[in-house]
Design goal:
Layout (H helix, E strand, L loop, with lengths): L6 E2 L1 H14 L4 H16 L10 H9 L10 E6 L2 E5 L5 H19 L1 E9 L6 H9 L2 E7 L19 E6 L8 E6 L5 H9 L9 E2 L9 H5 L2 E2 L5 H16 L22 E9 L6 H16 L15 H13 L1 E2 L2 H14 L6
Parallel strand pairs: 3-4
Antiparallel strand pairs: 1-11, 2-3, 4-10, 5-6, 5-10, 6-7, 8-9
Helix pairs in contact: 1-2, 4-5
């Protein structure tokens, strides 16, 4: 993908975004957490889940559709299982507490499972995987989302583009193995943000609301997302709705509110987190050695035409992180303008 725009120092951006959420009446600690989480997405090159979403999250709090200071409740169901009521707080705040609880359960019992309901969009799923991996855990993170993908055989959006995320430690603590992908052909947010920049999207990613192929991001965002792998992606999106929605007690079956365009009520998003100690069956050194061998074997395989190296999941994002940390995060003009307007509204000095 081409460069998005002028680059900005990530530390300045974090401080700027933090001020916005403090204005939304969030605590300094929670504001810092959200700002850092959004910027991490941009650093990793996952700009669709980065600071471009700031004004959306702010607006939901401003309109009373998300709680600035939620009273999050933890209910121990079994020694290794906790149920969390997020009290409609912002997803970053709730999910951060939930993954820490999940990690502690795993440290104590070998395995931890945490189900969350009454939450909101929690940004990039890799955020929580990273936290688990840093604590020597293999982890899975699921979430449901607003309707965008039709079940196989239908033309009606019903399930979300919910991400499937998995991670585990490697011999390099800075470069864990992380899978974080939507069940759609592309992350839904990318369609809208690409349209805002005046860019056309490739045909084959989505249909308009009438079921016709489109390369217009706005029509695609309001239309029908296509799952990756046909019926396989559609089945996975249904699975996400079961484990994150029905199983956790959150909204499900097409009832999750779209965080960007549906301001008719709380989203009631659900999350499911699973953590397992990486050394539960063998010592840590043995596990990491085998991970290294496995990665090296793959990297030494014959390259396909057009490839210079084989990267494992998580490596491309790590490369983006290193580059953007040094050179600054590229911010597109539409996002700069959006945040500048929000800063003016809140009487905050803009960095854009």
């Amino acid at each position: 993908m081409k460069d998005l725009g002028k680059r900005y120092n990530y530390k300045y951006i974090i401080n700027f975004i933090k001020k916005i959420f403090i204005k939304a009446n969030l605590s300094i600690l929670d504001s810092s957490l959200i700002a850092t989480s959004l910027v991490k997405a941009d650093l990793r090159g996952v700009w669709s889940h980065g600071i471009a979403r700031t004004s959306v999250y702010y607006k939901r709090v401003e309109q009373g559709l998300a709680n600035a200071k939620p009273k999050i409740k933890f209910k121990k169901v079994f020694p290794s299982v906790t149920h969390v009521d997020g009290d409609n707080g912002l997803g970053f705040v709730i999910a951060n507490k939930a993954i820490k609880e999940c990690i502690e359960l795993a440290k104590k019992n070998g395995v931890g499972i945490v189900g969350v309901y009454n939450s909101n969009h929690f940004g990039m799923a890799a955020l929580y995987i990273e936290e688990a991996v840093k604590n020597n855990c293999i982890s899975w993170v699921f979430t449901n989302a607003s309707k965008a993908i039709p079940p196989h055989g239908s033309m009606t959006p019903h399930f979300g583009t919910s991400p499937f995320a998995f991670g585990c430690p490697t011999n390099n603590p800075k470069k864990p193995f992380i899978i974080d992908m939507a069940s759609s052909s592309v992350a839904r947010g990318k369609l809208k943000f690409a349209a805002q920049r005046g860019e056309k999207i490739p045909f084959g990613l989505a249909l308009d609301k009438y079921g016709k192929p489109t390369n217009d991001g706005f029509k695609a965002f309001d239309g029908i997302m296509l799952p990756f792998g046909g019926m396989k992606g559609a089945a996975i999106s249904w699975m996400m709705d079961i484990v994150s929605g029905i199983f956790t007690g959150a909204a499900h079956s097409g009832n999750v509110k779209n965080p960007i365009k549906d301001f008719s009520g709380p989203s009631n998003v659900g999350h499911l987190m699973i953590c397992i100690k990486a050394d539960i069956f063998q010592n840590k050194e043995s596990f990491l050695k085998k991970m290294l061998i496995g990665i090296q074997k793959v990297k030494n395989l014959k390259l396909a035409k057009g490839f210079k190296e084989i990267l494992y999941p998580g490596e491309p994002e790590y490369k983006s992180y290193i580059k953007n940390s040094k050179l600054g995060i590229p911010i597109s003009k539409d996002v700069q303008l959006d945040l500048k307007k929000l800063a003016e509204k809140l009487n905050i000095k803009s960095i854009f």
